[in-house]
Amino acid sequence: MDGPGDTPPRSPTPSLNRIAGNTTYQKKGFCMRQGVRNIHIPIITLILILLLCAPVLYAIEPVDAELVERGDEFLFSSEYEKAAEKYREALEHLDSPVVLLRYAFCLGETGRYDESLALFEEAVDSGVPFRDTPMAVAGEKIWDTEHWLERLGNPEEAIYHYTDALGEFPRSPTITYALAWAYNSLYNREKAISYFKETIKNDPLYRDVYASLGSILYEEGGEPHLALHYLNISLLLNPTGSVAESLREKRNDILKQLQ
Fold it and tell me: Taking the complete model, does pTM exceed 0.90, yes or no?
């Protein structure tokens, strides 16, 4: 009998069970690692796709905003062709009635009357909500019609007050519209026309300013095609009523002159 110290050494060769066990473990481990890789590959791919596409996806809105901002800069400096180009680019991805009408205004001011009128028709057909009063700017005192018409008894004083108010609210269509009529009452048609146009720039959804501008241009007589254009817009926005009849008479008179 062998003694305790005579225990034979273990064979360096693993038993069949150990081999099977290790092999099974390795296979499971391999399968798990393969599974992890199979899971991670699509996740990593998705992350990479998102990282690559995110700048494009998130850039759409800022780029459009930048185009509109540049268009507005050109608009308010009366660089209508440059403004029109920026608005056109923005409208390829943007749905904005204000931008659309500012674009239409710029086209009209550069003599592209048919294109401009077509955009106004598109706005009307799509149900764009034109306003009966100019939009009030936040924080601005409401310069209602009665208030500024009352001041036209002393138009110089009205101009002083409105000019002062415009310094605080430079993009106020209510103030620019009031200034236009104040200057018109002094027969300063050039200033009146300028402020009517500023009103459209500030609030192209205000319907009455187109009739006012068209009528003043008609009375001035120096730009019959532009006057006709604004009268056509006015009739599109105000197709019925006594004002419409007056506008039609002016339009027909211009058409006779242009024959």
Answer: no
